[in-house]
Design a protein that fits this description.
By secondary structure, the protein is mostly helical. Helix content is 73%, strand content 0%. The chain is built from 5 helices and no strands. It has helices at 2-10, 17-26, 28-64, 77-107, 122-138. Helix 2 crosses helix 3. The longest helix is centred in the first third of the chain and has 37 residues, at 28-64.
Length: 142
């Protein structure tokens, strides 16, 4: 729910945080929309964490096993921060499509507005974004 509230305010869909809290947590349509976005956020957050950790550990292992190439103490805070940032950047790049899908689900209408289309879930939103612009549309914002 916190991401749904933040996304609605940042996208201008709601004028204030209080209005967004009302729409996301109090109104049943808002709660249903947050639940629809949950599956997409899992498809984003779990792979992101796995990719970030794998890149971090892989780079750290490579540096440790290549002392002739790298003269770096990988156990320092600075080294771990740099390796973590690289892992995070790779993870973020690879999970942008899931982030785009999640945000689009969160910010879609609830279907109760005049002429509003019924809200859609993960698979339908993925198909809609793909139809709007293919792979490029899934990487919007990167």
């Amino acid at each position: 729910p916190a991401e749904a509230i933040k996304s609605r305010v940042q996208s201008g869909q709601d004028a204030s945080t209080a209005e967004s809290v009302q729409r996301v947590l109090v109104e049943s349509e808002g709660r249903a929309n947050a639940v629809r976005a949950w599956s997409a956020s899992l498809w984003r957050d779990v792979p992101f964490g796995a990719i970030q950790l794998a890149v971090f550990e892989g780079l750290k292992s490579y540096i440790i096993n290549s002392p002739q190439v790298f003269d770096v103490d990988v156990d320092t805070l600075l080294a771990e921060a740099v390796l973590g940032a690289i892992g995070g950047a790779v993870g973020a790049l690879l999970t942008v499509p899931m982030d785009v899908i999640t945000i689009r689900i969160i910010t879609q209408g609830t279907g109760v507005e005049p002429c509003g289309a019924p809200p859609i879930g993960f698979v339908e939103m993925t198909k809609q974004i793909w139809s709007e612009g293919g792979i490029t549309a899934l990487f919007t914002g990167w």
